[in-house]
Every structure is written in C-alpha cells, then in structure tokens.
Design goal:
The protein is of the alpha+beta class. It contains 16 helices and 25 strands. The radius of gyration is 24 Å and the shape is globular.
Length: 557
C-alpha cells in the first residue's frame, strides 16, 4: 500500500483569473509567443518536500507526479504496464527477479543523462540506515537490502549493473506482488545528492528551493512560495519534449479554497476543479459547458487505534467500536452517496476485492454493547457510560485533522454513535494535518488513543506495508503473528501466483484483520472532477484527472 497520507483536497485548474495574480492565463514570452498556462489549486498547503523518496503528503505528491518521471506507470486495470523511464522490463518466470532497460534519451532537467547509476543510487539511499523516510518497504524485497540497511553489507547483493542503461534485480524470494510494490520506481539525480548527508536531506535546498531542484518529468519547478503557490514550467529536457509534450508551458499550483474555485468555474474563468467535495456535486451539475466526472478512489478513511494502549488492547472493545459506528450514514449523509462503505482495505476497483467481506461490521449497537459487557465494560453507576473492568471511568480521546469538512463532521458522528453505545468520547480540537501526522507517526508516543486519517493505496492490494507487525506505517502498533503469517502466504505461497489464488489468500488475511480490528475502515470517498469543455486531452479513471498520466496531453482551446 502506498505511503501517501490522504489530506482530502480540492484541486482546481484555473486560467486567466486576475485574483490569482501569479502566472495565470496566457502570457507572452520574450520571443513574442504565447505561453499556455493553467493553475491547479489545493485547499490545504503543501509540505514542500519535493523529492520522491522524502515526501509525506498527497499535496506534495501531485506536484511530484508532474515533475518526476518513474520507471513505469500503471494502467486502468491497476497493472504495471506503461513504460516511462524504463523502455522495457521482464520479470523472471518465478517472479524472483527483473531485468530493466532504461530509455537512452531521458535527461535530468539540468541536461545530465538519466542512467542506471541514478536508479541504484536511489535504492541505496532508501536502504541507508540514516534514511528516516517511509519507503524502505519498496526496496526491502531486493536481495541483500536488509543486510545493507543493518550495516552488515557494503553493497546490495541483488542489484547488478549491466551497463549504463541496463540492470538486473534479484529478489529475496519469488514474490507474487505487482512489480510496483517490489521496486521503488522514481529515481533521484545521483549527481545532485551523492555527497549530501542522508539524515538531513529533507531540508536541503535541492529538496526545498526551486532553483536547486532537478527533475526528470514533464515539468520543472520554477518558483515556490511556502503556503501560497508552486509554479511549474515545461521541462525542455523531458524525453517527450521532441513530440511536443507536455502541451502546456506552465502550471501554477496555488492554495485556494474550493468555494472560490467553484465560483470561478461557473463564470468560465476556471478550467478544472478536482477532488470536489460531495456537497458541491449538485451545484456544479447545473453549470453550463462543464463536464462532471466521478470514479471510485483507491484510498480510504479510517478510525485508527493504538492497539498497545491499555484502553484498547482488548480486541472486543475495538470490535464493539466498529459495530457502534453508523458508517452507512456517513456515506449517504456526509458523502451524499458519492462514496463506498468499506470493511476491507481492498478497493472495489481491485481484482482482489471480495464484496461479501464488506457485510462485516454493519451498524449494530446491540452487538457493540454485548461485546463491551463481555470484555467487562459495564455501566455500574447508571450515568449511561461504561466503566472499565476495574470500575474506573472509561473515556477515549479522538483526534482528527482540520481542513476537511467531511472528516470533521465524521468525528462528531463517531462521538455521537459511541456515546449512544455507552463509550464516553473526549473529542479533541482539530489539529493541523502535519502536526497530527507527526504525533501519529511517533513510535514513542503514549498519548494517542484514537484518530481519524486516511491512506491512498497502491494498485497492488498488499497489506504488509501498513499492517505488518514491523511495518514503518503500522502506526496502530498492531502485532499479530497470525496476520504476519497470512500476509506472507499471500505474497510467497505457490497459490499466490494466480490472481484467483492470491485473491483467496488476501481474503483469508482480511478475515483475521476484521476479527482483530486494528482500525475501523469508514468509507472510500469518490474522486469527483469537473472541467470546462474547452479543455482537451483530459482522461479520467481511479486516479482522477490530475493523477492520470495523460496530463501531458492537456491543452486549452
């Protein structure tokens, strides 16, 4: 599952709107030619970690998707099949290795060639013991990567450079997962980072300052103003530039509230608004000359538990909480039907999705009270709230980030539902997303009990990276030998090497997950995009329009 936190956002592509002031509309360049320029807006500020191995936030990710090329991309069937920096690749029959051939016309934005050395450098950077980011899970399958990280080896055994544009990778064992899960696919420029300390790199000018950031994708980063905007400019050294891609000269990402963007869309001054809130759907539906599109997202929202907290170690309590929450009301009420009720972390878009598992944890307050009583949590003083088995008041704190109306309303509904079931909730004041994420990620934190957040997942339904006992992203501190064993079977067992076989194995693991309930899966909010019909080249699927690789073909009439 992909290491990208969800901060549900609204994004708008704006053209020629004077209020935005910065680089919008068409501008004359020095030679008199017109520049094609649009502005994409987000309703929450970006973190500013513009490096594919170091970013945390989905806001940074949209900018990185347009500025850094990957070895390959996924298709509409959620399979890795579209060449990018890699001209071709071939996995071994046993899926225990892969040969990769890079295209020879790819360059960094400063004109240096992109070679196998950049790819190898990136993998070793992520495997370095000083690396504190969250992407080691995308290289740990390579033979020798764990030993290199632990300082037991000077090199990664499973990486073999054939020549400047060909390399061979050997995995620790035959692995049924999609290639995108086993290989980190977005290289960093070795010539920029090789002499910089790994530990402090996230604050380096080559990550933070536009004039120092070297990219490989269709656009470069021209200007950054923290909390306000990022200006992208066409990368003249992009390998597709000879074919005229990208067709736009400039994109400006600007922090802007959705209501302002929607108003401009209605007036024809905005070309696109993406990741629209469900409550705005009917409003935009009536706009003239606007196309409104919608699809199921791969991501999901969840209520997380610190399973090692004394208040939440008993799985019967966690299961009771799951039964007590009216999640269907969130989908029909808060999402206005523009979402999916989930009880499994596998998206309905995936070949591995099992619909029958989503019947688990249907709203059942009586079942919740029964489980609480079974665990020794009863209302002994008649105040309507349960006490813990020792007779002390039982209060659970709930944290959530501010900035997203649906999530904020979800927090209130969860409190109401849980208090109806007899669990008193201390609903905390919302925090900035970054501040909350920092606490959630702290391994030593002992204050967090429950929180609301979300994940954007990989195309491969691999639970190891989030729910494995030793996973960096296992913020729930869920340790289950039974789960770990089942995850391993779903990756390495002979049955896993057919889709139907692996689907059945993932289903087996999901049943374990549901019985232990380290989180309560709430819903998957649909991606809703609207764009003016004068835009051309827009394609759409589970990634939305902005996440679709066809953005290089965007144009305006």
């Amino acid at each position: 599952m992909k290491k990208r936190k969800i901060g549900i956002l609204s994004l708008a592509v704006v053209m020629g709107l004077s209020v935005f002031a910065t680089a919008c509309g068409s501008k004359s360049s020095g030679d008199g030619a017109k520049k094609k320029s649009i502005t994409a807006t987000m309703n929450s500020t970006f973190d500013g970690k513009f490096n594919p191995a170091l970013y945390d936030s989905v806001y940074d990710a949209y900018i990185l998707d347009q500025t850094f090329a990957s070895l390959w991309k996924q298709d509409e069937k959620l399979e890795t099949s579209i060449p990018d920096l890699a001209e071709s690749w071939k996995e071994s029959e046993k899926k225990d290795g892969v040969s990769i051939k890079l295209r020879q016309n790819a360059k960094w934005s400063d004109g240096k060639p992109i070679t196998v050395d950049d790819v190898i450098f990136t993998w070793k950077f992520i495997a370095n013991k000083e690396y504190s980011g969250s992407r080691f899970e995308y290289v740990e399958s390579i033979k020798g990567a764990k030993e290199y990280r632990e300082g037991k080896a000077q090199d990664i055994e499973g990486i073999k450079k054939v020549d400047d544009y060909n390399l061979e990778v050997t995995f620790e064992k035959s692995d049924a997962r999609d290639l995108s899960t086993k290989v980190f696919s977005t290289p960093m420029p070795k010539h920029i980072f090789e002499n910089k300390p790994v530990k402090t790199l996230e604050n380096d000018p080559a990550v933070k300052k536009a004039e120092n950031i070297v990219t490989s994708g269709p656009f470069t980063i021209k200007e950054i103003k923290a909390g306000e905007f990022v200006v992208l400019e066409k990368n003249k050294n992009f390998y597709g530039a000879a074919e005229g891609k990208p067709k736009l000269d400039q994109i400006v990402w600007k922090v802007l509230q959705e209501d302002v963007a929607i108003g401009a869309l209605k007036e024809g001054k905005v070309d696109m608004v993406s990741r629209i809130k469900p409550g705005s759907f009917e409003t935009i539906k009536g706009f003239k000359d606007v196309e409104l599109v919608e699809d199921t997202d791969l991501g999901y929202q969840y209520l997380g538990f610190r399973t090692d907290h004394p208040k939440l170690t008993d799985k019967r309590v966690r299961r009771a909480i799951a039964y007590a929450i009216n999640r269907e009301q969130m989908v029909t009420g808060l999402l206005k039907g523009h979402g999916t009720l989930l009880s499994t972390p596998v998206s309905p878009k995936s070949w591995a999705y099992s619909k029958d598992l989503d019947a688990e944890y249907s709203y059942d307050p009586a079942k919740a009270k029964e489980l609480l009583a079974e665990a020794g949590y009863k209302d002994t003083n008649g105040d309507g709230f349960v006490e813990d088995p020792s007779g002390k008041p039982y209060v659970l704190s709930l944290e959530f980030p501010k900035g997203n109306q649906v999530r904020e309303q979800s927090a209130k509904l969860i409190r109401e539902d849980l208090e109806k079931a007899g669990i008193k909730i201390d609903l905390k004041q919302p925090k900035d997303f970054a501040a909350l994420a920092e606490v959630v990620q702290q391994k030593a934190d002992k204050t967090m009990e429950m929180w609301l957040m979300g994940w954007t997942t990989d195309v491969d339904p691999n639970p190891k990276n989030i729910y494995g006992s030793t996973a960096e992203s296992n913020y729930y501190r869920w340790k289950s030998p039974e789960s770990d064993k089942s995850i391993g079977v779903s990756m390495y067992d002979q049955k896993a090497f057919t889709k139907e076989g692996r689907k059945a194995l993932i289903k087996d693991w999901t049943k374990i997950f549901q019985q232990d309930s380290p989180v309560v899966l709430l819903y998957s909010q649909n991606i809703i995009d609207a764009y003016n019909k004068r835009m051309t080249g827009v394609q759409y699927d589970y990634r939305g329009a902005l996440g679709h690789p066809s953005f290089v073909d965007w144009d305006v009439k």
